[in-house]
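Re: that chain you flagged

S.,

Sorry for the slow reply, it's been a week of failed gels. I finally had a moment to sit down with the sequence you sent. For the record, here it is as I used it:
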Amino acid sequence: MKKFFREHPILFAVFILLASRLVGLGVVNIIKIFQPDIDIIKDLGWLIQILFASTSVALVYWSGDVRGNGLAKPVSKKEWLLWIPPLILPIYIFLSLGFHVSDPSKMIILIVSALCVAVNEEVIFRGALVKGFLRFGTMVTLFVPSILFGLIHLGNILVGGDVKFGVFQALWTTAAGIAYTALVLRNGSILPAIGFHFILDLTEYFATGENGVHELGFSTEKLSIFLALTILFAIYALYMYFKNTRRLLSE
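Prediction finished late last night. Pasting the structure tokens below so you have them in one place:
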């Protein structure tokens, strides 16, 4: 089976996605049997994310192709510097929404949730899925997994999230997916993407006090500005990727 998944990385990405969901949602639903009054999303969202991430990473190590799935150091330490300009995104979130978490235990839960979301999503979408789509060419790899990444976030609407936020989230996660993929292809590692993804989500969680599924309403203006900034991030990342590709071809 390991050989099969190494030869069919797209199917491996699907397997990781389904297996992590089965483990995460299976465990919390067992808990709910014994504690029926508990809210799975609000009370156990952090546990779900831990189970998602740990299952995803465990399966990558089980496959025996850790480096091929992006869990390796970037080709150069300088590649980390490319993620400094996009920090305008978490800075904008902080300046526009502020910081609304004071309970230390709540902070820990949100930190753990943000880290696990970043690990899980990057392992699946910029690790296994990107590896699988590379055989179809660069443009397909840049856009198809990113569109799927955006569409999967529409699921937050189905579990109680604000509809307008969910639609905007699908759009900017598509743009962010393109940016992440371009820089991952450039440096051969998902580790910087995990780091940036963690910072971005953590800023959002600290600003809202919620871990990803937002019942709060946000102004269309703020959502539109954030979407525009994310699109600029995608343009920047694509420029840095193709600039590096041209340089390598000329050497």
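What I noticed first: The CA atoms of residues 162 and 251 lie 50 Å apart.

Talk soon,
D.
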